[in-house]
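User: Hi! I have a protein structure encoded as tokens and I'd like to know what sequence might fold into it. I'm fairly new to this, so please keep things simple.
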């Protein structure tokens, strides 16, 4: 037999595609040709595979070998094809009967000594195989627990090419994936640690309940960072669907924790203010990797000292904040990652950032305007909640923890409000108030009475509020009503929403 075919899976972004690895062995000068839009790592596979086969005690066929990866129009990236190529070459040379791996997906990178090494993105790869109807998959032993979380597919693991050859040739059993131990989620910072800041706590609760973006402005020590770091503690755990989305992104980035469990807690990303545009939105050579905005999908992206970020980095966030997805186009190809994240901005009011606030500020009015002006109007227009925090008083600091609500108490209200919103918007396919399109809220039966939106309409007509801002205030009003247990917002909810949006009013 001079032809063999083995099934593998390639990734484009976070989406897996079934790839057929074909091997044809023909008479002629010994050579290995790889076709099907391989990248550099795949071109180098011929040397890794040859050494792995020889060092595993098998014979390398001294013939002209043509390897083709179908579909040929799909770009192929990475080293996850190594193991499938090795099996196809041995099958094509007649050394292995390939019936035992028929309709089986084979994934893994080969070392020169024949060891099978872990690869990135196994979770979305196995999920793609399951969607395509495959019932079995062979993965590196270090990826076995990760692959086993996908239901409906049988996972077996290998640590060496020799073990896989023994299974195909003699039926030697492969390694079973380990059973992931049930462990409690690690505890994080709690809201009871925050001293005072009732307005900030209310803004945080509203943002969590509706999935709204949040900006916290105030002097150093006011609690901006503490509030932002505690936002994940009041968010509900991820359900199966969203947990799989989030875990797949972290698998592609190589950041999935060991143990193979799905990520159930909303992720929290806090890049330094020196972060580049590619690190925020995604980038890298060849196929772009997910950036912080995608790694924070269904969680929180916190930009501390936001005015210190480069203008290009901040402006690059505008499109994903609006659409919930980030499209990346590079010379090596384009891809798309989900980016449905909650943005939290924290900023001092001026460059000198005196702890006592305005009373001791040494900055001129022009310097203050220029500093906060680094946060552009179009970016802030996409931030629903914008609050100014006052300095913490001594009485509040010394009594912290005595009367402050814990994260668990706030999280219970947030979960109830989210459930109310999910039930109301179920027919639209949305789950959060922040996701509802503006036109939907401006039409019956969801349009609010004119008496409740009089001030809001006046701000729109005067130009102090944009059309986007109008819709975001309405969404905030619905979230406030959900937190208070009402079916619809009233005038008081709209007034509070205006205050949270602009800092003006009651």
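Assistant: Happy to help. Inverse folding works backwards from shape to sequence: for each of the 506 positions I chose a residue that suits the local structure. Here it is:
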């Amino acid at each position: 037999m001079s032809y063999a075919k083995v099934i593998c899976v390639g990734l484009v972004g976070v989406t897996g595609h079934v790839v057929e690895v074909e091997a044809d062995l023909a008479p002629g000068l010994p050579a290995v040709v790889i076709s099907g839009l391989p990248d550099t790592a795949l071109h180098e596979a011929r040397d890794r595979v040859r050494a792995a086969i020889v060092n595993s005690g098998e014979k390398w066929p001294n013939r002209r070998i043509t390897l083709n990866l179908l579909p040929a129009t799909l770009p192929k990236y990475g080293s996850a094809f190594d193991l499938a190529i090795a099996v196809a070459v041995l099958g094509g040379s007649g050394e292995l009967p390939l019936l035992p791996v028929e309709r089986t997906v084979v994934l893994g990178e080969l070392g020169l000594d024949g060891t099978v090494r872990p690869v990135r993105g196994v979770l979305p790869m196995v999920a793609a195989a399951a969607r395509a109807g495959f019932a079995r998959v062979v993965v590196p032993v270090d990826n076995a627990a990760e692959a086993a979380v996908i239901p409906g597919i049988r996972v077996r693991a290998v640590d060496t090419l020799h073990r896989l050859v023994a299974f195909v040739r003699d039926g030697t059993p492969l390694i079973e994936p380990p059973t992931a131990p049930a462990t409690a989620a690690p505890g994080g910072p709690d809201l009871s640690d925050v001293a005072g800041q009732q307005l900030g706590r209310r803004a945080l609760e509203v943002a969590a309940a509706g999935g709204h973006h949040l900006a916290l402005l105030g002097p150093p020590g006011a609690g901006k960072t503490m509030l932002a770091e505690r936002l994940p503690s009041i968010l509900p755990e991820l359900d199966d669907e969203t947990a799989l989305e989030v875990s797949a992104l972290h698998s592609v980035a190589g950041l999935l924790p060991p143990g193979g469990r799905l990520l159930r807690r909303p992720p929290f990303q806090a890049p330094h203010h020196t972060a580049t545009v590619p690190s925020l939105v995604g980038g890298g050579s060849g196929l772009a990797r997910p950036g912080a905005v995608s790694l924070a999908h269904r969680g929180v992206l916190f930009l501390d000292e936001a005015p210190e970020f480069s203008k290009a980095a901040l402006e690059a966030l505008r499109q994903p904040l609006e659409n919930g997805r980030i499209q990346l186009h590079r010379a090596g190809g384009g891809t798309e990652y989900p980016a449905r994240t909650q943005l939290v901005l924290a900023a001092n009011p001026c460059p000198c950032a005196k702890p006592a606030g305005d009373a001791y500020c040494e900055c001129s009015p022009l310097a203050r305007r220029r500093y906060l002006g680094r946060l552009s109007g179009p970016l802030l227009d996409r931030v629903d909640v914008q609050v100014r925090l006052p300095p913490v008083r001594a009485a509040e600091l010394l009594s912290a923890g005595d009367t402050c609500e814990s994260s668990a108490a706030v999280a219970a209200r947030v979960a109830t409000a989210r459930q109310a919103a999910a039930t109301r918007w179920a027919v639209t396919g949305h789950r959060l108030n922040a996701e509802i399109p503006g036109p939907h809220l401006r039409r019956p039966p969801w349009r609010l009475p004119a008496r409740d939106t009089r001030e809001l309409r006046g701000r729109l007509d005067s130009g102090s509020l944009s059309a986007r801002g109008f819709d975001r205030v309405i969404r905030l009003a619905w979230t406030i009503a959900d937190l208070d247990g009402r079916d619809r917002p009233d005038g008081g909810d709209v007034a509070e929403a205006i205050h949270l949006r602009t800092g003006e009013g009651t």
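A useful reference point when you look it over: The two ends are 81 Å apart (CA to CA). Feel free to ask if any position seems puzzling.
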